[in-house]
Amino acid sequence: MEDHSNRNDPLILTILKDWILPFLLPAKVPNIGIVLFSTFGLSYLVQQAWINLAPERLFYEKTSLIGYSMITLFRLLILLLIYVLITEHYKIKEHHTWGRNPGLGVFFMSFLAGVPAMMLSVSVHNLFIYLELRMENPIPSQLFYYVTTEESIWSILLLLVIGLLLPVLIEELFFRGLVYSVLPDKWWIRIPLPAIISTLFAMNRLEFLSFLIIALIASTVRYCTDSTLCSILTRISLFCINVFLSRVLPTQDPSMVQNALDYSRTTLYASIIGLVLGLVMIIVLLRQFIYVRYRLKNEDASCNSEEGKPLAIPLRDQFHVDFFLGVALLFLCWVTI
């Protein structure tokens, strides 16, 4: 009887029930739209509060290490809050966000991926600054940064916790965990999209290309190993290698150079060599990661494992009004920097 009555509904009423209302109402399943809307909606509020906050109301400078730590902590809490709310509301299981245990050898290989990630990101950062100076373009400004000369043990610990450990854990769990899990199980979606969203969330025009390279490598590691812990190891390795090789391939501080003539030729040549070596290394490692992905898929097919099954989210449920509102808020965050 219900099917018969539906067939007799007017065309406008049918379109309203089947297309317009489902588009305007939130989806009943987790999707990228609700993630974008909540992430960049809260991020915009925090960003505007930070920009409009009068410096005299603070007992520290916004560009101090304490100021940088405060705004970074607030932004990380946004990601953590959204992660908890969405996973609890939609009952997303841990193996969808955290992935699985691919084995000790894969963990070690993921740690090694931090070496080319460091070489590529630092080289691109240095070359970008050189090209901007060469073309006499102004260096892009940064919204969240710190300027400090403190070298006390407490400032170093604060920087390690706020600048490395918490961002790596929370960002990877969010972008390579939650965002990754709600996307269709296609490599051309699950690798670039979380990388682009995480890079845009950083709100750093100066480091955009560098952060995008790091995010793409982390997303590739996550996709091939089906483990968020592997992408976390890659980013931790990137930091460690950067510390050990800082004298061989230093990160160029844009405030230390005024024009292309001041740019150190040693840094320029080291960046070119680092870019080439990084590309060679990542190509070699990529072949091994593809083999790991192939092996895991064969194991899933033979064992019918639940760990290897992605969330069954239709593509139509990804595009609701919250998706377009999220994109609009993302654009608003960037134009108001």
- Backbone shape: globular
Written as H for each helix and E for each strand, in order along the chain, the element string is HHHHHHHHHHHHHH
Number of strands: 0
Nearest-integer average pLDDT: 91
Which structural class do the helices and strands define?
A: mainly alpha
| Percentage of β-strand residues | under 5%
User: How many helix segments?
Assistant: 14
Helix content: 55-70%
Name the poorly predicted regions: 1-5
Oligomer, anyone?
A: single chain
Biggest beta sheet attributes: none
Query: What value does the Rg take, in angstroms?
Result: 22 Å
**Please, how many domains?**
1
**Could you give the distance between the termini?**
57 Å
Q: Which helices and strands appear, and what pairs or packs with what?
A:
Layout: H1 2-7, H2 11-24, H3 32-52, H4 65-89, H5 94-97, H6 104-112, H7 114-134, H8 153-182, H9 187-190, H10 192-202, H11 208-225, H12 228-244, H13 265-303, H14 321-335
Question: How do you describe this structure in short?
Answer:
This protein is mainly α. It is built from 14 helices and no strands. The protein has one domain.
Question: What are the key terms here?
Answer:
14 helices; 337 residues; globular; mainly alpha
